[in-house]
Every structure is written in C-alpha cells, then in structure tokens.
Amino acid sequence: MIFSFQNASFRDGETGLYNQAYFMEILNREWHRLIRDKSSLSILFLNPHIHISDDIHKKCFIEIAHLLQDATYRSSDIICRFDERYFAIGLFDLNEEGTNVIVQRIQSNIEKQIKLNSVSVNLTVGATNVLPTNEILIEDIFVKTANTLKEAESQGCNAYSIHELH
User: Fold this and answer.
1) Which among 95, 102, 93 has a CA at the least distance from the CA of 129?
2) Contacts of 157 by beta carbon, 8 Å cutoff, 6+ apart
3) Is the pLDDT of residue 5 over 60?
4) If one looks up domain 15-165 in CATH, what number appears?
C-alpha cells in the first residue's frame, strides 16, 4: 500500500480538510515567521449552523467544506474543521480589506451553490486580523475571533464581523 497524504492523520475524515490539531500547529509555527517578517494574519471562524444529524445535513456540511476550499485561492491559506460543527481559516499576509474580500466571496459562493440544492444555510463569520508581535499571545487571537463570531451571530443570518488587533 502506498502512503497518501490525503488520508494522513492531519486530515478530517469526513470533509478532507485539515483537522484542528494540525491547524493549530501550523499557526503556531507561522506565528514566529509573521513576527519576523512583520506580516499580518487573519483568523476566521465560520459557523454554518448545521446540525449533522442526518445524511442531508452531513452532505451539506461536506459541500460547504469543499466550497471553502474553492473560495480561497492561495496555497498558503489553511482551512480546517474546527470543533466538529465549525470551520476555521488562516489567511497569511492579508490585511482587513483582503479578509473582507475573502469573506464576501465565501458567502456568495455558498449562497449560490447551496440554493441550487434547496437547503437553507445561515453562515456566520467572525474574523480577526492581527499584526503578530511578541506581546500578543496566539491564544488571545482565538478568544477574540470566537467573540467576533458571537458578535456576528447576534447580527442575524449570514452576518460577518471583522476586527483588527494591532
């Protein structure tokens, strides 16, 4: 049998996306490079509000995972399944304006494709754009992004919120 990176332990078995542990490892490794290069990082948390309780919803969740991959064009962008019901995206060397473009592209792509399948999806997105420094802890970025996602969810269906932390 030939070893395949597609099935390695850093991939989620259902979606094919990276798993949360690998996502965290990559971000931790890249954090120091970003500090050295004075480059920015955007972390996005995405909640499709899908409870994967039946095959139709599971299929929709997996389709969203594939659409997320299609909406991020750069090979440096990293997407993962996060806490079973969420997705997370790491965008390197991207400012708030670029993050906004990506979020709008994601929502547009998902809205178009999912409507074709007659399934309603409420995709809320919370994003934090940061210029990493030694004074900022990467853990704080995840807390800030989770709070930003909650803020987006309080705005209603298909809302998003982006915060800068510098």
Assistant:
1) 95
2) 122, 124
3) no
4) 3.30.70.270
